[in-house]
Amino acid sequence: xxxxxxxxxxxxxxxxxxxKKELAKVFPSEEIHKSDIGYYIDLNSLNDAQKFQVSKLxxxxxxxxxxxxxxxxxxFKEKSCLRSGHTKRQPTRYGAHGLHEYKxxxxxxxxSSILNILEVDKASKILxxxxxSGTTLYESALNNLEGVGFDFNPLACFISNAKLSTLGMDIxxxxxxxxxxxxxxxxxxxxxxxxNDIRLIYLKKWFEIETLKKLEAxxxxxxxxxxxxxxxxLFALVSDLVREYSLQEPADLRIRRxxxxxxxxxxxxxxxxxxxxxxxxxESLHDIxxxxxxxxxxxxxxxxxxxxxxxxxxxxxxxxxxxxxxxxPYIDTQRLSIIWLGxxxxxxxxKLDRDLIGSRELSPSLKRDLMKSLIENSFEIPVxxxxxxxxxxxxxxxxxxxRRQAMPFIVYRYFSDMKKMFENVFSMMKYDAKFALVVGxxxxxxxxxxxxxxxxxxxxxxxxxxGWTLHDDITLEVYKRYDLHKLNSIDSxxxxxxxx
Length: 500
Hints:
4-stranded antiparallel sheet; 7-stranded mixed sheet; 13 strands
């Protein structure tokens, strides 16, 4: 009998369900039994292929001794997370996963589990249509899998590529580079002259002048060092501190003036601490195994842009956590980092925010165009979804504010955008390839009526219209939120697996 134990931290029921699905892929002919500590199977030996697969299990560890003992790569990865701060909480920031905060990202363990459930092998090439901060790309790379990710947000691609760059990197050499840049910038900052170009005029509105001098001195030093790989990683690490040291309220996803106190910690100490913390985690992870650089990358292409995506074909698997209708304001939240890094001008950022899939921002002219499209269903979304949008539109009253007045058109545009995404991903995948999406539910109130948006089911309908078939549909619980935006957070998610 082979016994498999859950980790020491508490698992959600859906994680236990995923664990069983992973185990079933390793032992497709065996009955899986539940135990007090996990699962067991009535088998007395393992072949080499099974040992390799067991070593990759995400939520289970084989505890049989002697010849049945198999080391768990996931357990090693999680133990490498030196500064998680919680021994009974699932570590999610091992390696470079903790490099930069990014709202709405999913845990790397989910990616690892999905890879196992989809039976992805080393020859497989992974696609991430909404790569965000690179959780799928980086976790896939830790499993020696090559991937390509796309994102409309230039900062998302910047962070993703910074994470990927740490694989095979000499971290001690990077630390030395960082130390030299920080020391040089500290000496330069006091007398640094802030110019009056468009970028800096905008940033002056959102930073105390002494803080902006430090940021600009630091940026100048890193650029002059002319080391793209080290420089971009260092920029990504410092970008994670930009909101905290700005005049923007850090707890608010939108650009609003700060009401909380500024951090007590000196900016340079914070930079030094951030660099050391992430580097220590990366070094600890690299001590476990010699993770080599993988030919993976994130590319700043809109997944709706069919022409720009024509050259990308032959993917074996796709994994994503897509935006949903009334998505998080990713661009607005990270506006200061995007502008400080020079990834977009202030005017370009406004356009990025408006054009993001799921964006709540509509100009009057765009709203008029969308109203016409909605009435005629010119985007040819499924009839049931078109009727839902019309129902939302007809529920509006004068008591609904301007954001709620725009909601039917935002939702209609979202369905249209996701249809285009499904079409483009379909064209990039091999025959029989699978597409896994972790999708959230959400809700809105119009005319005093609550509309519960079952986005996972809506996306299944759209995917089927394009040519996908439904392979699996798993309900996931989500963490409760207790922050400023808890009322707008999603209350449940599903893992949808489609097949071409």
